[in-house]
Structures are given as C-alpha cells and as structure tokens.
Amino acid sequence: MRIGVLALQGDFREHISVLKGFGADAVPLRRASELSEVNGLVIPGGESSVMDKLARTFELRDPLRTAIADGLPVYGTCAGLIMLSTNILDGIEGQESLGGIDIDVRRNAFGSQTDSFEVDLDVPAIGEAPLHAVFIRAPVVERIGDGVDALATLEDGRVVAVQQGNLLGTSFHPEMTEDHRFHSYFLDRVRASR
Ligand code: GLN
User: Fold this and answer.
1) Which pLDDT tens digit goes with each residue over 16-64?
2) In terms of C-beta density within 10 A (0-12 exposed, 13-18 middle, 19 or more buried), how is residue 2 classed?
3) Residue 78: active-site member
4) From CA 78, how far away is CA 138, in angstroms rounded?
5) Average pLDDT score over residue span 4-17
6) Is 175 a known active-site residue?
7) Which residue blocks in 114-180 are alpha helix, DSSP H?
8) Which residues are CB-neighbours of 145 under 8 A, at least 6 positions away?
9) What band does 113 get if pLDDT is binned at 50, 70 and 90?
10) 182 in the Ramachandran plot: left (φ > 0), alpha (ψ -120 to 50) or beta?
11) So what's the ipTM on this one?
C-alpha cells in the first residue's frame, strides 16, 4: 500500500515515519504525476496559507482537487484539515482550500494566548482509551455539513476531528505523539477503498 505525504511544507517527515511503522510504503509527494501512484494521501501540519501558495506554484492544486473529488482517501492534520475544508474562516487574503470535507474551519481558533495545549480526547471511532492530543495554533471546525461525522469534540463541544467518506481530518497532531491510532484508522479506510 503506497501512501503519499504532501511534502511542500510542514511536518511531512513525521507522518512518513509513522506510516512506515505500520508497514506502508510512505513517500513524499511533490508532483502531480505522483498522485496516480498512491492509494492514499496525508496532508501534514504546517502553515496552510504557505501550503496553498506552494501547491499553486508546484501546479498541484487542481490535480489535488481532482484526486480528492475522484475519491482518493486523504487524512489532513491541522493545516491539512484546513486544506481539506470547503470553507476557511480567518484565512489570509486570497487563501483557498482544496475542499472535500463539507465544513467551515477557523484558523488559529485558540488565539495567541493559547498557542498550544494538550488534552485527552474521547474518540470512539478509534477505540475506548482516550487519545492524548497535541494542539499547535490549531484550527477548529465551526460548521459541519450533511454527511460529515464529528469524531471528537473538546469539553466545550467544539469539533476537532471529522470524517466524510474517505476523508479524515484532525485539528491536532497524532504524528507528534506515540498514539498512532488515527493513522491506523486512516490506513484501514485506504485498504477498504481499494
Ligand atoms: N495555524 C496553522 C495554519 O493556519 C496550522 C498550524 C499547524 O498545522 N500546527 O495553517
């Protein structure tokens, strides 16, 4: 099973190493031609506005949109979740997402006073034990459309993990902790979609 990790910017190396730990053939993806060679794609954390610009520069944005619309399984963490949203709130001027998951996502939703934090989350979809989640200048999901499942919420009810079909997104960074059940869950989706 070959998984591409969008390697324009951000913490793609961490994702590659987690995916390899599950035995997947994880490769950095930078060219549109490489999209047809992967069974799934991970969009890492980083800075979504920069990722958007680089995706245009590398002529990857439209091919990525097409691949997502054609059903490629994709998992986005943090900036990756922003990229997968249909609508960005508090984006920089001209910033666009790739779309795919019918949600509104607010960038930097926790403000500068809470730059980062960690919390234990209940995520029934991946198992009973709580998941220790790391949030870094994280986005939050403010609207979810029909067909989108909220997989995890903070205590105040704000949604921080979503799934729509083969598309998965988390506000937090499982690639930075030792608990990789989200990657495993994603790989199950990729396997099931083949
Ligand atoms: N704040 C970043 C953005 O807007 C996301 C941060 C992250 O990926 N850790 O893209």
Assistant:
1) 999 999 999 999 999 999 999 999 999 999 999 999 999 999 999 999 9
2) middle
3) yes
4) 6
5) 98
6) yes
7) none
8) 86, 102, 103, 164
9) low
10) alpha
11) 0.96
Name the H helices within the chain: 12-21, 48-57, 61-69, 79-84, 181-193
Mutate to test the pocket of ligand 1, among 14, 43, 48 (most ligand atoms within 8 A of CB): 48
Q: Positive or negative CA dihedral for 10, 11, 16, 22? A: negative
Contact 139, 92 (CB under 8 A): no
Query: Using only C-alpha atoms, what is the Rg of the chain?
Result: 15
Q: Are 20 and 26 in contact (CB under 8 A)?
A: yes
User: For the chain, which domains are there?
Assistant: 2-193 (3.40.50.880)
Amino acid at 73: P
Query: How far is the C-alpha of 29 from the C-alpha of 31, rounded, in Å?
Result: 6
Residue 27: strand pairing partners: 4
Q: Catalytic: 142?
A: no
Active-site hit among 34, 37, 78, 178: 78
d(CA 29, CA 13): 11
* pLDDT tens track for 145-191: 999 999 999 999 999 999 999 999 999 999 999 999 999 999 999 99
